[in-house]
Amino acid sequence: MIFTMKRILFACCLGLFVVSSGVAAEPSPPPATAVDAANTLHYFNRPVVTFRSSLSGVSASDRAQRAAARLREQLDAPGPHRVDQKPEPMGVLVQIDGATTFVVTADDVDVLQQESLEASAQRAAQALERVIAESREARDWQALLWALGWSALASALALVLAWALRRGHAALARRLVTLSEWHSRKLQWGGIELLQRERAAAVVRKLLNGAYAVVLLLLAYEWLSFVLARFPFTRVWGETLNSYLLNLLGLIGGAMVGAVPGLFTAVVIFYLARAATGMLHRFFDRVQQGQHSVAWLDADVAVPTRRIATAVVWLFALAMAYPYLPGAQTEAFKGLSVLVGLMISLGASNLVGQAASGLILTYGRVFRRGEYVRIADQEGTVTDVGMFATRIRTGLGEEVTISNTTILGSTTKNYSRAVQGEGYVLDTTVTIGYDTPWRQVHAMLQEAAARTEGVLTTPEPQVFQTALSDWYPVYRLVCQAVPSEPRPRALLLSALHANIQDVFNTYGVQIMSPQYIADPQTPKQVPPDQWFAAPAQPPRQT
Known about the structure:
There is one protein chain. It is built from 13 helices and 15 strands. By secondary structure, it is an alpha+beta fold. The protein folds into five domains: 32-138, no CATH class; 158-243; 265-347; 367-414, Roll (SH3 type barrels); 424-512, Alpha-Beta Plaits (2-Layer Sandwich), CATH 3.30.70.100. A hairpin with a 4-residue loop joins strand 10 (389-394) and strand 11.
């Protein structure tokens, strides 16, 4: 109960702050400027009349001060305090019991309200009658006792309601938390809870606490408004609280009702966009699966094309639905849109560059998923080609992520693009001295490739003499392999090197690149009778 009382007192202080700001913002009369506040006659916190011009050399503020002094003197004097109006050439005299309290002139009429002099004087007279009645009530002890009694009764009723709300909140919280835990326990898939019970219970508690705080604040707000309206001096504050709340609720309700047509239009636009994206998904799925053949679209780029088309559809739908969204025409919404656009334009330049690079790689068909490539100093199988980055898995089992802008700025070697069918190119280089027949080296390298498991026999491995350097020729073995996963290329290359060593050792040929120090005793050359040393075979005579 003490905690509840603290909440009520806090809500009362908040309500008093709203009142202090709401009296100056009361819709009738219009909001007064700093000059109008000094020129307005107030009594019991109520504005009676605003003087907008001087009269017989007396300024508007002095007129307000003199009228306040005369009004206090007239109300302190005994009498019926009857309000009358008397037209005069200078204006309309507003009198109490035949004595003039103030004069409303033609220059005091608010031109923005488009009122006549008589209407302004009539409104001032009615306001004066109201403050006279409240002044009479403030002097009536019986009326004050009744006000105190009603305030005490309202306070007791507010405390009872707060106590009942607290008990109901606690009981409802226990019940709903139990239900949420029971339902979350039932939401399982394959023995795994889709919704954790602790989080569900925490969400329910927070929602209930928020609703309880709002209801308690409304209760304190209404209690404060009712109590303030019981006493003449604070009645204007209580009325302001009520009018402020009613005006706020009316404004919110009117805005919600007015936003329904535009919101319905936006929902229809988004529904059409969702239907269009569903059709696009089905179309691109059939293209990807090979059920449809389109000349301008390959199955390899069906997935990124579907993503781009979906993004374009939703962006178009958002642009079409933007004017119909609630609050889209307000200055705050426009300012927020400009701020978000500025932040995106300043911070997303690199992001846009990455996306553009991804589009170039995708539609330029530089490489595809599953191909073996070498990008800069990284070599492996392409596992994913994304909008912003590409992932490759190296022969050592490592997954490397490379940004698309880096790929476009470097040289890419595709070992799978030039092969026949599936697979990739496997190559290695050896240097053997000139004293070894080149035909024998070719045959030994081809035999080593044939011994390596995973190297295809069709197409046949080929050996190229890529250079004739000063001390040795350079032989390059090129063959084709089909991997079952990214790792075997490193294993195949290691096995190929091992087989090359075994074959060369078998035929007594050392794998060593001679360097020139001095002239040899005998020329390093191969006689013709040794040109076809094993395992080389001479060509068949036809």
